Amino acid sequence: MDRTSLIAELKNRGLRDEALTGPLYKRLAQTLTGLIQEGLLKPGTALPGERDLAEALKLGRVTVRTAYRDLMASGALESRHGSGTFVSSRVERMEQSLWRLSSFSADMRSRGRLPAARVLSRAVNTPSPEESFLLGLGGDEPVLRLDRLRLADGLPLAIERAVVPIKFLGHDAGGEGSLYDALTASGHRPVRALQRLTAVTLDPSSAAILNVKSGAPALLIERVSRLEDQRVVEYTRSHYRGDAYDFVAELRIGDDL
Predict the structure, then answer these.
(1) 45 and 99, same domain (yes or no)
(2) How many domains does the chain have?
(3) Would you tell me how many other CB atoms lie within 10 Å of the CB of residue 81?
(4) Which of 6, 69, 114, 232 has the fewest C-beta atoms lying within 10 Å of its C-beta?
(5) Which of 85, 67, 77, 60 is nearest to 20 (CA)?
(6) Which residue has the higher pLDDT, 226 or 257?
(7) CB neighbours of residue 96 within 10 Å
């Protein structure tokens, strides 16, 4: 819902409806809360400025400001310095198994959510010495560097930075869909991986991309994936939003306990 549609919906619902109670700022807050709960206002949606909304609804600016402050105090809205007021981008936490290798796209579809990828950068060049070692490549063998923002239902959840030998993928890989689907289509499906998790905080640039505050907690996951013949097919560093994910592992108790 864009700003024009929001203002039209607020006018249609009417803040003087008898079903609403309390002063006008409370009624405005109740109406906006209803739109959020109904899914009409999605996480991350920008709201009109106080003056614009006040003029459109013929309310005092203090009324709108007080309603916004109430909703920010409850966590329904958030203020971003220099950008305005937004529906809170906090998300329902998801559990992700550490023992199952799956693509982001497949995982989101299994949850009934619509996955998407926004390419941040894409380049084909030679690997760094560290990447040559990890990927088992010669220094002149080209790799695809693909940095993407991963989204579910339009909400940014992770930044993935993948390095894949071109010989496994081809020069024409675009990066909009599942990288694992592209590898499978080329006959190079990963079958096992080693992952390392580290708790980190997001730098200002990454935080801005993920629509969270600078310094927000995140999980850095470094993954090295292999083919059936043990060749390394992918090296990926991903930053997952700390407010969205819980990574879980099932452990078996040894016989010596």
Answers:
(1) no
(2) 2
(3) 7
(4) 114
(5) 67
(6) 226
(7) 16
Q: What tens digit of pLDDT does each residue of 62-95 get? A: 999 999 999 888 778 888 777 788 887 666 677 7
Question: Where would I find the H helices in the chain?
Answer: 3-13, 24-37, 50-57, 61-74, 104-110, 129-135, 166-169, 179-185, 204-210
Place of tokens 């950008």: 83
Short-list 115, 146, 108, 117, CA closest to 234: 146
Distance, CA of 176 to CA of 150 (rounded, Å):
10
Residue 109 counted as domain residue: yes
Q: For residue 90, how many C-alpha atoms fall within 13 Å in the half-sphere facing its CB?
A: 9
Rounded Cα gap, residues 80 and 76, in angstroms: 13
Burial classification of residue 220, based on how many CB atoms lie within 10 Å of its CB (0-12 exposed, 13-18 middle, 19 or more buried): middle
Residue owning tokens 């807050």: 29
Strands 232-241 and 155-165: antiparallel
Give me the CATH number covering residue 40: 1.10.10.10
| Residue 9 belongs to domain spanning | 3-87
- Spatial neighbors of 143 by CB under 8 A, at least 6 apart, are 124, 125, 126, 127, 131, 135, 137, 163, 164, 165, 166
Predicted model pTM: 0.65
How many angstroms separate the CA atoms of 238 and 45, rounded?
25
